[in-house]
Queue: 2 jobs
Job 1
Amino acid sequence: MGEFELIRHYFAAASCAQAGEGVALGIGDDCALLELPAGEQLAISTDTLVSGVHFPPSPDPYLLGQRALGVSISDLAAMGATPIGFTLALTLPCAHPDWLQAFARGLDQMAQRCMIRLIGGDTTRGPLSLTLTVFGRVPTGMALTRKGAQVGDLLCVGGDLGDAAGALPLVLGQQQAEPAVADALLARYWSPMPQLELGQALRGKASAALDISDGLLADCGHIAAASGVALIIEQAQVPLSAALLAFAGELAARQCGLSGGDDYRLAFTLPAHYLPELQQAGLPVQVIGRVAVGQGVTLLNVHGQPVQQPHSGYQHFGSARD
Amino acid sequence: MGEFELIRHYFAAASCAQAGEGVALGIGDDCALLELPAGEQLAISTDTLVSGVHFPPSPDPYLLGQRALGVSISDLAAMGATPIGFTLALTLPCAHPDWLQAFARGLDQMAQRCMIRLIGGDTTRGPLSLTLTVFGRVPTGMALTRKGAQVGDLLCVGGDLGDAAGALPLVLGQQQAEPAVADALLARYWSPMPQLELGQALRGKASAALDISDGLLADCGHIAAASGVALIIEQAQVPLSAALLAFAGELAARQCGLSGGDDYRLAFTLPAHYLPELQQAGLPVQVIGRVAVGQGVTLLNVHGQPVQQPHSGYQHFGSARD
């Protein structure tokens, strides 16, 4: 089966989604073609997931499909963009029909939820890895970036943190938990839901934003560096789920919330006067700190005293901090 | 060194190229942002190159950088698009500074030649592979696709074929050749120059086009299938280089020209009245056949009789023909 046939056969649902306004030409030619309405910019992000690095070896293909696309779309949410389409470069040791079918079903499920369409792809034989490139649109000049946090802004996150990191012993089969707890944590690892609605609502309001993938402290460090400010986080305000607290205990849960990766929640800085409006709209906005003069990220305990953090996130290649 | 630092450090030249009009935000945030002039569409293509599959294990990193980007941009040429930018997802077993520096230098050399800018990336630890996604712009409705070849059109290619396939024994170190021959063939393998000028000149003229990556016969099959026509190729008209003929002999050279992969020359169908104009402009246009009623690709020998072809190109995954 040729490359296009393989994609057409297994990924038909994702590539024919009714979503994907702006796709002038989809799969099947040398390039896909996108159109942008006047006054909009195209947001683009590329992510690679490698077996044994970003997910356990021999993962459930259905869950892998969901996770790979969710993780990638999260970058669009972080910019306040509306999804249009994505390309999938899939490298596989062999093309097993059952595997491909389940993977495509997971991918399609996330594509439908996020209203995004598969517009191109490449299939290659090799060690299992995936590279997804996602495309979205955002009104010109309105994209949320990491640069722009202002002294006095609130520091907020889009919900409970640490669940995905806390789920790792379950993902790896090293520990077990009662079904309700296990299901909640595993869902946050395998099916991260990009906060698209929140990101779009923050356009014109948040002064800086990103999605938390390397851990709260590390990613807040990125906002602080790009904006030339300090971020102050009150440890007690970092939201943790009941499932994570039940599974890991308070100390480990807190560490997951601060330094665990793979949250794919938004972190953002916000002028305080926008807070009531967002909360009244039912959006998941949790204030965890503020923007101050200075640099870097400072974590305060319940007594308002700085806490030392030995590790603050996950890094590929090397040890120096971003 | 963090992901952005790594990219900024080694890929500074490629990411700061003066080229890349339309890049509103480059490397360093969750997404890059592109702008499109009114009346233009965005062309997008994704390619993965895996060590040991698409290039020999332990390749010269400088040459790999050139080749990976050249191969990817060739898809933009095939659509008649003008390059804007590209993303690079680089998976490496380890981040060796010398390797990265040489790879980035090769990548940058091709980026400068093609006026394209690195706008985003991802670095991951794992078995060596690269996924590049390239972006170009093309006036709305003017992109060259595989669909549209008309009965009576000429079938043309953009120059000598088979050199890259013929170079494989040299690439793999299995054979040697005199320097002039070896240099010519190796350059066609390691530094494929996308036919951007030709592709852009074909807009509004060629009725169908693609770049030859799987071999002439296989790729002409794609045009025939997409357009619902037959393509007739006169074997004696398929252009072969002096270097390939000297190295491989006529029989093997012809087989490389017909079925070898990795040419990255354009193949296109053209109403005959456009031919003089293109040739007078000095563009590399070689007529090798014509479009006829029917389906599939037929190869004719010098006596005008059909030639049986046991193999007609390279396919990933499985054996059925496209």
Job 2
Amino acid sequence: MTIDVLVRNNVKVLGSGSQTIVFAHGFGCDQDMWRYIVPNFMDNYRVVLFDYVGSGQSQIDYYDAYKYSSLQGYAQDVLEIMKALDLRDAIFVGHSVSSMIGMLASIQSSNYFRHIVMLGPSPRYVNDLPSYYGGFDRRDIDELLEMMQMNFIGWSSYLAPIVMQNSERKELTDELEKSFCSRDPHIARQFAEVTFLSDCREELEQASVPTLILQCSDDSIAPVEVGEYLHAHLKNSRLQQMTAKGHYPHLSQPEETSRFIKDYLQSV
Amino acid sequence: MTIDVLVRNNVKVLGSGSQTIVFAHGFGCDQDMWRYIVPNFMDNYRVVLFDYVGSGQSQIDYYDAYKYSSLQGYAQDVLEIMKALDLRDAIFVGHSVSSMIGMLASIQSSNYFRHIVMLGPSPRYVNDLPSYYGGFDRRDIDELLEMMQMNFIGWSSYLAPIVMQNSERKELTDELEKSFCSRDPHIARQFAEVTFLSDCREELEQASVPTLILQCSDDSIAPVEVGEYLHAHLKNSRLQQMTAKGHYPHLSQPEETSRFIKDYLQSV
């Protein structure tokens, strides 16, 4: 049986232009999270959107707990999407865990990638002190995962305001809480576990595609130390500090987010 | 904006034949639950499958908490699907709460319906003693809904074996548990509330479409008394007792389920 990758991952292709730009959503989100960014690129780029299996309107039947027990499973799907669309030298914009998924994919097949833009990336969320500060104790992550298991709805309403920041704009938190709760809790929990326990530090030195690291302010998921670590260990990388607060600048500050991506692409 | 009903409800049309048969899934399920039944009808019928909004691969963006705060919202969607497919005199097979959804739709527009087959139906789940026995105390339902809110994953693994029966066939319980957990917990909880607190007893006398009531054995959701009540209050109804145990005979005993539906359709 051949898999229809474009259906499986609910792939959408918009806009026109000879240069393709792929936007990849993060944990607990889907392609709709890019809706404020996409209009800024549609005139000059061919825009590709998709949902990871288990997220958004992907075909949930393809969810495979073994395949998706590591970020490599998701990276494989990114490559399959790029192959199905016959992409070469695309720009890949990944939010959060998608930054590392894109990087892993680029290590495997760098010809698909011209540039990578990482939005709020982290190669490892759990501290590995004294050499590495990720922002989380292992115990914090275990508690979060246990809360997902025991009280999924409560977990989403607990986490959303912490990671969104921008508390004066309640609609942002509401959207995120709703998004966290929009899919299969078992799948969400496994994706959370795979994300928050991932460690891509060793792979950083194998990456070669030029990369922009967009570092948010007051980001409880990916603190400034993590952005600096990434920049130091990732060849051909540029680090850009944003004024946008929280882990979802594409929702909270889409203008700044779009501008930094465009500025980078024009400068390279 | 016109709504593409066939996309919204992930409508699939299979098989051939001049007579159309619509299969409507119940709470916590989707159209895939009919997969053992459909092959038995595809040669002689045009088979229509769909997912209610919020279930399966429906377009979750169309979920509207107000519209779906009563079964009438779902009945409206059934009619919209039938209209979009230009159906007349179709056979409607509804599992569980879909039996009542189909009946409500048929009261509004009977011309779409030739026959209705109700699989494990109940016009009211909560007891209204001494005149009506539905099988549940109101307190049972409230506890179930609270459990969904507080521990969604725990709720699904608690409920699945109770309603599936057939404990020696663990794969059935596993599938149901997975299905219960396959969508947005907020939506699932509202659908549960709307289902388990529904009361369609007054509407029974307005229904006129000839109906087969398939009564399961050892069904903790729809006990025998409920089937008998329905038969007594529903004009043109036939009551058929099944040997199939539990609330999901289309999964656990697809041969018997298909045979009773076929026998009924051939006899009328």
